[in-house]
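for the recovery benchmark. tokens below, seq after
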């Protein structure tokens, strides 16, 4: 009885709080030392006591921790819970953090599942290729699947010439260029039209930029055309390149006297 009288009504010991929330006493003691969750009161005998309000705060901490937030991140997200507006704000921020984390986890899951498919198609363990695929998936590069068809020489060349930012910029420009060609194709613009020739020059400049002027890499790029790919979207884009962009390139080479294989 003396023990119970020593605990004010509405408070609980560290052991009781731990049991109620399904954590260990050591966890609560650690949060106390880190000033993440300090007990609201102490008993006459010096025992540290937790209130229901402390448990609400602990629930916030555990929820954010389960989503992968560090203790420092959690400290920044916790606010006082002194009135309904504070509680509502805390819940709103927690909900927003959960939604953001869920979106991030969903993207990570999709990347892992995509990489799993690519790994089975590569048919050999190649962690450098795996890393390249993950980076390109994170870049939202729709051509990520081409990586598995490149040999080590080509991949080493790409790694040496492009980092994540420059690679993203290059692919963005390439996609815009294909869109520009597609608009001219819809108008039935002849390959040797001035607009097509300008785009063909830009296309060739991008190939030169990609290869770094090393034209021995060009046949390796052309070999991609002979590979039976599972990606229907890429097949359609390559057919578009063959049927429309290639004649424009040939007209550009004829006009300028460039021999790409010289």
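predicted aa per position
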């Amino acid at each position: 009885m003396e023990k119970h009288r020593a605990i004010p009504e509405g408070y609980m010991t560290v052991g009781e709080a731990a049991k109620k929330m399904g954590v260990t006493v050591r966890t609560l003691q650690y949060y106390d030392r880190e000033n993440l969750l300090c007990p609201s009161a102490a008993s006459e005998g010096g025992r540290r006591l937790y209130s229901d309000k402390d448990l609400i705060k602990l629930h916030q901490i555990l929820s954010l921790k389960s989503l992968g937030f560090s203790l420092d991140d959690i400290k920044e997200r916790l606010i006082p819970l002194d009135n309904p507006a504070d509680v509502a704000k805390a819940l709103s921020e927690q909900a927003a953090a959960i939604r953001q984390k869920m979106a991030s986890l969903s993207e990570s899951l999709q990347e892992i599942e995509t990489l799993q498919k690519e790994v089975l198609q590569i048919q050999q363990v190649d962690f450098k290729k795996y890393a390249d695929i993950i980076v390109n998936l994170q870049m939202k590069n729709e051509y990520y699947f081409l990586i598995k068809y490149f040999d080590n020489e080509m991949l080493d060349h790409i790694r040496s010439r492009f980092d994540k930012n420059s690679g993203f910029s290059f692919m963005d420009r390439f996609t815009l260029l294909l869109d520009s060609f597609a608009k001219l194709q819809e108008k039935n613009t002849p390959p040797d039209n001035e607009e097509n020739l300008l785009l063909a020059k830009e296309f060739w400049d991008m190939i030169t930029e990609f290869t770094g002027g090393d034209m021995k890499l060009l046949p390796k790029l052309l070999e991609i055309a002979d590979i039976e790919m599972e990606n229907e979207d890429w097949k359609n884009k390559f057919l578009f390149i063959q049927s429309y962009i290639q004649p424009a390139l040939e007209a550009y080479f004829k006009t300028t006297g460039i021999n790409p294989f010289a």
